[in-house]
């Protein structure tokens, strides 16, 4: 699959003429719409998806929910889901090897480390809405 140059290594989707680019950006009012004619999620590797989703996040100044303290293999996914007044982190591994996860929550500043077994899913801690509600900002369940 050929990845458009604007998505392959770029941190933004450039505005170009509709006839010459596979990725576009338009501003039909106060907001902006960016799109690509190729599904970046199906590309070989994660760079196109990271660039595609990272561009609007950076443009809107959306901070990540956590900061990695050590790099992760591309086959490990960390995401979160809202649970009332808490945020639950979920860790998934498609890796053939076990992975050490070491991150810091950006809101509370609380560190979290765990060993994630190969090809497993593990619930991480809950982050409460207020830092003082739990020891070091985390509630482990």
3D structure, described in words:
The chain has 141 residues and is mostly beta strands. It folds into 2 domains: 5-59, no CATH class; 66-139, Immunoglobulin-like (Sandwich). It is built from 2 helices and 9 strands. The protein has helices at residues 5-8, 47-59; strands at 23-26, 33-36, 66-68, 76-83, 86-93, 99-105, 111-116, 121-128, 138-139. The strands form 3 sheets. The chain has a 4-stranded antiparallel beta sheet with strand order 4-5-8-9, with no helix packed on it. Strand 1 (23-26) and strand 2 (33-36) form a beta hairpin. The chain is globular and about 45 Å long.
What is the gyration radius calculated from CA atoms?
Answer: 18 Å
Oligomeric form: single chain
* Protein structure class: mainly beta
Q: What CATH first level of the largest domain would be assigned?
A: Mainly Beta
Give the name of the CATH architecture of the largest domain.
Sandwich
Major sheet strand order = 4-5-8-9
Element order, helices and strands? HEEHEEEEEEE
Average per-residue pLDDT, rounded, comes to: 75
Please report which band the strand proportion falls in: under 5%, 5-15%, 15-25%, 25-35%, 35-45% or over 45%: 35-45%
Task: Outline the fold blueprint.
Layout: H1 5-8, E1 23-26, E2 33-36, H2 47-59, E3 66-68, E4 76-83, E5 86-93, E6 99-105, E7 111-116, E8 121-128, E9 138-139
Antiparallel strand pairs: 1-2, 3-6, 4-5, 5-8, 6-7, 8-9
Brief account:
With 141 residues, the protein is mostly beta strands. Helix content is 12%, strand content 35%. The protein has two domains: 5-59, no CATH class; 66-139, Immunoglobulin-like (Sandwich), CATH 2.60.40.
